[in-house]
Predict the structure.
Amino acid sequence: MTNRKPFARIAITLPEETLAAADALAARHDRSRSWIVAEAVRQYAAAALHAPAEAAPASLGPSRREQLSRDAALSPEAPVLAAAEVTPVGPELVPPAEPLAFAQVDDFLDWQRARELGS
């Protein structure tokens, strides 16, 4: 005899309008929200398994693909530099006497980690 439950608990994030639609379906069919979500996954999986690969729906929406294209066009240093710009700077941090230069982003990250460990 196993102690394994027939269900697994998960957490998902849905847009408000999708959640409202799921709740409306649950009320209309006298089912739980979980049943509605599970049934949607079952139907999607069944359709995707039997559909030709070229007919499968795109996994990413146009706005996400656009964001990924913009991100791919950035240099490797750009995200690190952008993150450094929004890092809070307290009065206890003194800027270096001369500008720092790093040959690689990894060198900057190592320097930053060393500073964090030293404080």
Observations:
- The chain has a mean pLDDT of 79.
- The helical segments are 16-28, 33-50, 62-73, 77-86, 105-118.
- Residues 75-118 form one domain.
- The radius of gyration is 24 Å.
